[in-house]
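As described in the Methods, two query proteins were run sequentially through the folding procedure within a single session, without resetting any intermediate state between them. The first query and its resulting structure tokens are shown here.
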Amino acid sequence: MRGMGTMAGSGTDADGRSEARRSGRHRGTPSRLSEQLAVTALLRALARLTALTFLVVAVLAQFPFWHPEVLFFLLLAVFTLLGEARSYLTHFGPFIGLVAVYDSFRAIADDLSGNVHVHEMINVDEWLFGGTLPTVWLQSHLWDGQVSWFDYYFYLLYILHFPMPAALALYLWRRRPALYRPFVASLVVLSFSAFITYAAFPAAPPWMASEQGDIAPVARIAGDVWASLGVHGYGSIYDRISPNPVAAIPSLHAAYPTLFLLFMGRCFGWRRVWWLAFYPISVWVGIVYFAEHYVIDFILGALYAAAAYAVTMLVFARLRRRRSRGSPAGATQPEAAAG
């Protein structure tokens, strides 16, 4: 009996020690969790502080915000502050990455062909307008050597070349995801189609033709706009933001706003967004007035945008029909849509 009591006592002691160890583990768990939460909170705070510092430095340093790689890091900083950096990198990062790849390719397009075309665009514009070159005509009526309010207006829209497509892509990604991938695909098809054209047909813009004496003297008004803002050395700045001066046909400065308008109409309906046509039309007029493009350049740019939009929407429509035909016969409509 004594032995049994001893054994029972030992069992009780063992159970007590096990209970103590379990309770100790339970008592330690909140401590470890709190430490992990504190480390996670510290890392998030550091990430947000870094993002905020980057934004402040970018503004103070007057970075060229229109560059896609700068936009990538600026948006990454913003979404880090919002606590959505991982979602941004997964879903939106590839869009900016593809645009940045195109932008780097654009710089080498003029190296693939040594024959820069000058007179073809001049001849077409003069034929379209009865012997008058629109760039020369616009500057003779609007430019008097001093920067006016409409020069700032045109240039503001001009430098939104990359930010506007990025803003629309952000909206579609967050609010209209069904149109996000078609928009990205359209922009990529448009950009790389233009790159192929630049490589096959490098074309000089009006300001370059004027410097060479092929057309009447015209001003490069964008440089005057910068100078009026206290920024000098426009030529070196332009070389950084547009490293290929003969990437003129088609005009992507005209094509991107056209694609923007097409997707806005698709997203909201033309009755609601018809007034947004002022954006591409203003850009078309501005790039001709600034001597950055000929009229035929923006006509071809708009046509490239319409073709990229039509082809991409057709391909995605066919892919949706194919997926719907391949969905299980017994699936409900929401299930088929999800598939």
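Immediately afterward, the second query was submitted; its sequence and tokens are:
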Amino acid sequence: MHRFASLLTGRGAKLVLLALALAFPLFAKSEYQVYVMASAFIWAIAVYGLNIITGYCGQLNLAHGGFFAIGAYTLAILTADHGWNFWPAFVAAALVSAAVGALVGIVSLRLKEHFFAIFTLCVGFIIYLLIDKWEELTHGAIGIRGIAAPDGFGLVDFSQTVPFYYLALLFLILAIWFAGRLASSLLGRTFMAIRNGDALAQSLGIDLMRNKLLAFVLSTTYAGVAGGLYASMIRFIGPEEANPNHTFDMITYLLVGGFGTLFGPLVGTVGVVWITQSLQFLEDYRMIIFGPLIVVLVIFMPRGVIGTFLGWKLRKDTAAARANDPRATTKVTPGSEVNNNA
């Protein structure tokens, strides 16, 4: 069992997950299932961004769904209304989301804890209202149609479901790679020091405002990238894409997977998306089942699926070390396993 756990948290886990992702379209029962998985990958990219500001830095951003919508609308407006090629518009979507994130962060990050969360919630509603009411720019409730798909090459046509699936997978891999490098870097450790307490971080000489702002901008860049991919996949967007409920969906994904873990955003997003899809036959009653499942998970796995597993593995490793060396004094501290990015 212990060898199995080591496999799940090492390079073997990454290779297995990659192999499963690459082979999924070959074994999917329908093209719709491939579409759903591609959608889950895109949402997972946005959740990785939320994990940077919330899981690593400890700042609960309730406007994250709004920045996702900014990325989606930036790409939609530039391609459908102004005839831009997809790739320049895609870069612009990430940059606009990052720029707006910087402006919001400069103001909001001066607030702490629940005041910051409430302020960003208001920002999310403002973004939603602007998209809904600014008809000259966003087309209001009518939405935007004819959004460009990514330009293909040779026989590859990204307007088709399977090629787009692999494109979404590529960007997800890049998102996970960057998140892993960030978590193991000095900057990532700085974010985690801020999460553990502003006073402690300041005592270490950390510039709180600069590092919080950097984490915020990185997270909104992730959201913009995900939004641009989402708009190009569905080819039509409306104000509902900016609904603040999307932020709470992403928080649910992160809560299920595990805050501050490397694979938590992926496991939580893919798992919840497929559970909700499997319960669609219940229509409006599916939340009666899904809601209690989430409550049970939070009660018995408060650190999420991945966080709980890493905590169990750390305790096993500590027990094994003590068995081999009775003089060992290694202790498991709350949250120490969260920083294990395996």
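Strands lie at 144-145, 236-237. We note this only descriptively and draw no conclusion about the first query from it.
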